[in-house]
Write a structure and sequence with these properties.
Number of strands: 13
CATH architecture of the domain at 3-182 and 234-267 and 305-319: 3-Layer(aba) Sandwich
Bound molecules: uridine-5'-diphosphate-4-deoxy-4-fluoro-alpha-D-galactose
CATH topology of the domain at 3-182 and 234-267 and 305-319: Rossmann fold
CATH class of the domain at 3-182 and 234-267 and 305-319: Alpha Beta
Oligomer: single chain
Structural class: alpha/beta
Distance between the termini: 31 Å
Order of helices and strands: EHEHEHEHHEHEEHEEEHEEHEHH
Helix content: 40-55%
Shape: globular
Number of helices: 11
Radius of gyration: 19 Å
CATH superfamily of the domain at 3-182 and 234-267 and 305-319: NAD(P)-binding Rossmann-like Domain
């Protein structure tokens, strides 16, 4: 059984990827500092797969702890690196926290991968690197725009750090540029766990629907889009998780065509905020209390993915409909309330 290191493996996308890796026959070693996740994710993973993954609470900025862990698992063949700070607004308030954490973690990981001869890295990147693209749908060749937040900047610079490291080592990597991951595992045993008031649309919607929040604000209806609200490409987190298994297999099986490859992970379909609200109301049967407010600073007007490169090269395609995806998010919110939540 091949062993994969999953950093940030108790987080939202990380935990769903651990499930898919286990179900595809891999052994996982999960590390996380639990700064934005809970060990309840590990119990959820165990209930779904029947396997409790090996877990260590490690901060990747602490290089000696990571070194110690890797020397205990000398048979790790690849790393999937999710662990990072990811709140756009917080990154504007606390840029050094973002630069220190996101850069130091990646640098420590890359240095130790070289030392331990771990050759393969799958990296969590973001469509934020495109800013507002001139042409839609956006392809991987679209120019990188100056980042509008320190968070976005860390994604751009981390891609560069990986590219430069690969040129000077035997490491090979795939960076996956996520569009907007939403939804939860069909079992409702794992899902997104926002700390405090959610910044993202779908957790805010489900929390409003269940009564935790009173009203959703729709940030602007005066954009240059058909209904005036912003457009995004919302992808089911399980589809996204499966792409990580495909990417890591491509590296392990040496099917990659370049030592550094980049793929868009989206559905290829743009959906407006108002369309998404209407679809949520339809699948949940809940009438959502929302109002149109002003634009949120820094929002991109519209972006959705050209997924043809990922479809062709990875042989991967998002499968879930928006209805299924939103229903899974709603089931997760309800399950979380019914069970009293993770400790
Ligand atoms: N929105 C609302 N009300 C809310 C929250 C969001 O109307 O309460 C709107 C936003 O204005 C935007 C859309 O819903 O138009 C999606 O917003 P999200 O915050 O859910 O997602 P973003 O597209 O802003 O951000 C996501 C990730 C970031 C990443 C970015 C890349 O959360 O980490 O995509 O574009 F950087």
């Amino acid at each position: 059984m091949k062993k994969i290191l999953v950093t940030g493996g108790t987080g939202y996308i990380g935990s769903h990827t651990v499930v898919e890796l286990i179900q595809a026959g891999y052994e996982t070693v999960v590390v996380d500092n639990l700064s934005n996740s809970k060990t309840g994710a590990l119990e959820g993973i165990e209930k779904i797969t029947g396997i409790k993954p090996s877990f260590e609470c490690i901060d990747l900025c602490d290089k000696s702890s990571l070194d110690h862990l890797l020397s205990k698992h000398k048979d790790i063949v690849a790393a999937i690196h999710f662990a990072a700070c990811k709140a756009v607004g917080e990154s504007v308030q606390q840029p050094l926290k973002y630069y220190r954490n996101n850069f130091t973690s990646l640098i420590n990981l890359l240095e130790l991968m070289s030392q331990q001869a771990i050759e393969y890295l799958v990296f969590s990147s973001s469509c934020t690197v495109y800013g507002q693209p001139e042409k839609l749908p956006v392809t991987e060749q679209a120019p990188i725009q100056p980042a509008t937040s320190p968070y976005g900047n860390t994604k751009q610079v981390c891609e560069t750090i990986i590219r430069d490291t690969i040129a000077a080592s035997t490491i090979k990597s795939i960076a996956l540029r996520y569009f907007n991951p939403i939804g939860a595992h069909a079992s409702a045993l794992i899902g997104e766990l926002p700390v405090g008031v959610p910044n993202n649309l779908v957790p805010f919607i489900t929390q409003t629907a269940i009564g935790i929040r009173e009203q959703l604000s729709v940030f602007g209806n005066d954009y240059n889009t058909p209904d005036g609200s912003c457009i995004r490409d919302y992808i089911h987190v399980v589809d996204l998780a499966k792409a990580h298994v495909t990417a890591v297999e491509r590296l392990i099986n040496k099917n990659n065509k370049n030592s550094f490859e980049i793929f868009n992970l989206g559905t290829g379909k743009g959906v407006s905020v108002l369309e998404l609200i209407r679809t949520f109301e339809k699948v949940s049967g809940v009438k959502l209390n929302y109002k149109i407010t002003g634009r949120r600073a820094g929002d991109t007007e519209q972006v959705w993915a050209d997924t043809s490169f990922a479809n062709r090269e990875l042989g991967w395609k998002a499968q879930s409909t928006l209805e299924e995806t939103l229903l899974s998010a709603w089931k997760w919110e309800q399950y979380y309330k019914e069970t009293g939540g993770w400790k």
